[in-house]
Amino acid sequence: MTLINELHDIAETAEHHEGKTIYLAGGWFNPLQEKILKDSFSSLIKNTTVAHVHVPLLHQYQGSNPIVDGEFNPDQEWATATFDDDVNAIDNADIVVALLDAKDQDTGTIWEMGYAYATHKPVVVLTVGDTFEHPINLMPAQGAIHHLENNDLETFDFYEINKRFYVGKTI
């Protein structure tokens, strides 16, 4: 089963709540990133303070899949449409939740965090991995309003986001 199919299956179990709209930024380029994305999406759709979670991978241009024969191989049309759609989705979201793999930080996710910050969207970050062994860049480390201590996305109150500083080494 492909990651996109697994995410569609998770989406079908979504509980409907009144709440915030979340843009879920995260890489999906290695097995750990795929797991973080699936687990976080599963948790967020159960959260009673979340009305909707936008997962960019579920909204591919014309339903396309940029992975061909196991390789990420997008064309320019796909890339342009994806960029425009993702920016629009961030603009329409209340909050951006960014998922960072400390060992392999996705530059697309970092850009999404920066754009959200620049447009005054709160950014909540879940970092997986040892941030002392694998430091996070200063900009995403400081650009988030809240760094989750663990994956408590199912119970996190997106109405009451208090400052929680990054814990780890920065570069």
Textual characterization of the structure:
Helix 5 (138-143) links the parallel strand 6 and strand 7 (146-147). This protein has helices spanning 3-12, 31-44, 76-92, 107-118, 138-143, and strands at residues 20-26, 50-54, 67-68, 71-72, 95-101, 123-128, 146-147. The chain contains 5 helices and 7 strands. With 171 residues, the protein is of the alpha/beta class. The chain starts with a helix and ends in a 24-residue tail after the last strand. This is Nucleoside 2-deoxyribosyltransferase. Keywords: Transferase. InterPro entries: Nucleoside_deoxyribTrfase.
CATH third-level topology: Rossmann fold
Under the CATH scheme, which architecture would be assigned?
3-Layer(aba) Sandwich
What letter string, H or E per element, gives the SSE order?
A: HEHEEEHEHEHE
Q: What fraction of the residues are assigned to beta strands by DSSP?
A: 15-25%
Radius of gyration, Cα only, in angstroms?
Answer: 15 Å
What's the number of domains? 1
Give the class from helix and strand content and strand pairing: alpha/beta
Largest sheet: 5 strands, parallel
Strand sequence of the main sheet, in spatial order?
2-1-5-6-7
Uncertain regions: pLDDT < 50 for 5+ in a row? none
Helix content: 25-40%
